[in-house]
Amino acid sequence: MTRPADPETARPGPRLRVVADGEAEVPWPDEPDPGADPWSGALPAPPSTAPAPASPARPQSVWNAADLMATDFPEPRWAVPGFFAEGVSLLAGPPKVGKSWLSLGLALDVAAGRPAFGSITVEPGPVLYLALEDTPRRLKTRMGKLLAGRDAPRELTIVTEFPPLPRGGAEALDRWLTANPGARLIVIDVFAKVRGTSAPGVAAYDADYAAIGYVKQVADRHSVATILVHHVRKMGSDDFLAEVSGTNGLAGAADATLVLKRSRGKADGVLHITGRDVDEAEHALSFQPESGNWLLLNGPASDHTVGDTRSTILAHVRAHPGAKPKEIAEATGLAYDNTRRTCARMAEAGQLHADASGSYTVPEP
User: Fold this and answer.
1) 164: which of 22, 57, 196, 227 fits an S-S bond (Cβ 3.0–4.6 Å)?
2) Would you write out the chain's pLDDT as a tens digit for each of its 365 residues?
3) CATH number of 13-20+75-301
């Protein structure tokens, strides 16, 4: 295992862990013994009096076809059913779109056993959150908003500095998972902070694939869901996978790829997802600025990506009071079913008024 050339300058800074009021102080000295391994304390170790947990056995890698077909395998372990299964999930999105709010909210929910996205039941368990672009002060502020007065979960460990995966980071993750065998989730925000540098002459695709491989080997060994927060390209694409920054090696090595999109200034977003253990899908989400939460919306994502559609309908109804959905659709070129559903939702939201005949008008301000 390689080490930084100068341990004194490369030693990790203070770490942050969520604790409840009144919990005993845990001694994490900022200045360890100069002779000690500077990365040995990158994550809290189990109490010295406790027996060392056994690492999981390496999975069998060579089979004959008959034995493979006769073997019963457990179902994948899910951190968030339908979204994040065991293995590596790449969560990408533009800067400031809300990825960190989403990932921190998931970490808190899974650690506490609260419904993820406001409605998805999860199993509680230890969670490790590498918040590598945030300060303890900012994290405390964000968690205070997300928790809304609830107690901080004891099962959430937060780390603000961490070694690159090729230089001890993968081993540190393995040690933490070995000490926390019931772990449900790891979040690395952002992946670029721990991926390390590529060897000279290595093709970009191979370098990206290998970078994911470091964490995937650990995640697979411990059957734990691992989220790598990442960015997208500036130029958009009809294929959401093509928007992930880097080569196809990243999405190719990951077990699942999720891309979060939302128009700047709008609360609604769409989470596009595809992977080996998840069905390709689009999920509509709503960001709640007052609480920092992302909530899953009911129905197909297309039912909620209606910002421009609503504007079009409002403009037509203002100009043609009493219009019905079929008339609106024919005049604007919108799909009739989408127009009908959108008009009904706008009426529920108070943006339109519907009479008994199904005609719509814009309410008086």
Assistant:
1) 196
2) 444 444 444 444 445 555 555 555 444 444 445 455 545 555 655 555 556 666 677 778 899 999 999 999 889 999 999 999 999 999 998 888 889 999 999 999 999 999 999 999 999 999 999 999 999 999 999 999 999 999 999 999 999 999 999 999 999 999 999 999 999 999 999 999 999 888 888 998 899 999 999 999 999 999 999 999 998 766 555 566 667 767 788 888 899 999 998 765 455 788 999 988 888 888 989 999 899 999 998 876 765 665 678 878 988 999 999 999 999 999 999 999 999 999 999 899 888 999 999 999 998 86
3) 3.40.50.300
Global model pTM greater than 0.90: no
- Give, in degrees to the nearest 5, the angle at Cα 288 between 287 and 292: 95
CATH class of 307-361: mainly alpha
User: By the 8 A CB rule, do 310 and 346 touch?
Assistant: yes
- Domain residue extents for the chain: 13-20+75-301, 307-361
Alpha carbon distance 219, 72 (integer Å): 21
